[in-house]
Amino acid sequence: MSDKKIDWKNLGFDYQKTNKSFMSVYKDGEWDEGELTDDNFIRISEASTSLHYGQQCFEGLKAYRTKDGEIQLFRTDENAKRMQRSCDKILMPRVPVDKFVDAVKKVVKANEEFVPPYGTGATLYVRPFMIGTGHTVGVKPAPEYIFRIFVLPVGSYFKGGLSPVDFVTTEYDRAAPQGTGAAKVGGNYAASLEAHKEAVEKGYADCIYLDAKTHTKIEEVGAANFFGITKDNVFVTPDSPSILPSITKYSLMYIAENVLGMKVEERDVLIDELDEFKEAGACGTAAVITPIGAITHKDKEHVFYSKEEVGPVTKKLYETLVGIQTGDIEAPEGWIFKV
To answer: How confident is the model at residue 30 (pLDDT cuts 50, 70, 90)?
Structure first.
């Protein structure tokens, strides 16, 4: 395959088979060494716990091409640790951090021709996941597990450039208190499909989930974390045990405090007190930052900086993080893994 066969600038976020995937099996209390495979199908028992009881989890990260042509990964060890926490929550065996990082490097290296060129805005998306397998009919942990990683090139999230989008609050709950909200498990995403569909049908990009107990506090924005910039320049993001701990969010918190010199607060964000924010955004692996133009709650629309233009702080946060990921800005120690 050559670069000419892929239109790098017009890539979407769609599955395509690449050269190799990585696969490792857990059986009899231990992981095998794992291997690269060119087979993009998995054969499992029809009684696997992943199919019936949702015993599965996943991660999402990216590989970036730098200006000098090198390939680098961003905070891969943090994805490994978060996957371990997800596994703990639903009684699956942990993948050691070193094994996780090494497997990601191996599968990215095996697919390096699919890593888009620097400057296209495209990246190689990496999807590690684990599923419970084996013959299990009762509600209990699986006897065996598969840890697998596949990759695919994906385009720039913002085809027309970084621009604000609008959201609406939903009455649906994404996750229950003391539930699996902080774990990256498939059930959380299945629970979001109906709310997302209704929001899009109303003309919004996605929905805002409020806390399940009181419906007064912002928790997540679709499948992303929320942040706001107050009028006195404080970076604020919700604090809740039901929120998935976004690696992008914690990276932005570090940048806000240590690069931009801002005060950072992780605390309750009340939906009725949006006036405290001059800018707002949603953050995650796919888009890095999705600027929020407005939030509609109970038919009342609150506009932040603008519905057409990105606020200056949000733009600076975005440019700084993307610069680190693509090698244009020096990264904090330990953030970058070379392939």
So the answer is: very high
- Across the range 116-134, mean pLDDT stands at 96
Beta strands in the chain (DSSP E): 21-27, 30-31, 35-37, 56-58, 61-65, 71-74, 123-133, 144-154, 165-169, 206-210, 218-221, 224-230, 234-238, 263-267, 277-284, 288-297, 300-303, 336-338
* Tally of CA atoms within 13 A in the half-sphere of 112 that contains its CB: 13
Residue 158 scores a pLDDT above 80 = no
Q: Which residues of 89-106 are buried (b: 16+ CB within 10 A; e: fewer)?
A: bbebbbbebebbbebbbb
What's the gap between Cα 168 and its chain centre?
A: 21
Q: How confident is the model at residue 162 (pLDDT cuts 50, 70, 90)?
A: confident
Q: Which CATH class is domain 3-154?
A: alpha beta
DSSP 175-212: S-TTSSTTS-BHHHHHTTHHHHHHHHHTT-SEEEEEPT
Domain ranges within the chain, ordered by starting residue: 3-154, 165-325
Q: Which residues of 50-62 are buried (b: 16+ CB within 10 A; e: fewer)?
A: bbebbbbbbbbbb
Which sign does the torsion angle of CA 49, 80, 285, 314 carry?
positive
Per the CB < 8 A criterion, the answer to whether 269 and 228 are in contact is yes
Q: What is the mean pLDDT of the chain?
A: 95
Q: For residue 49, what are the β-bridge partners?
A: none
What's the predicted TM-score (pTM) here?
Answer: 0.94
Q: List active site positions.
A: 184
Amino acid code (one letter) for 145: Y
CATH T-level fold of 165-325? D-amino Acid Aminotransferase; Chain A, domain 2 (3.20.10)
Residue-wise burial string across 143-164, b where 16 or more C-beta atoms lie within 10 A, e elsewhere: bbbbbbbbbbbbbbbbeeebeb
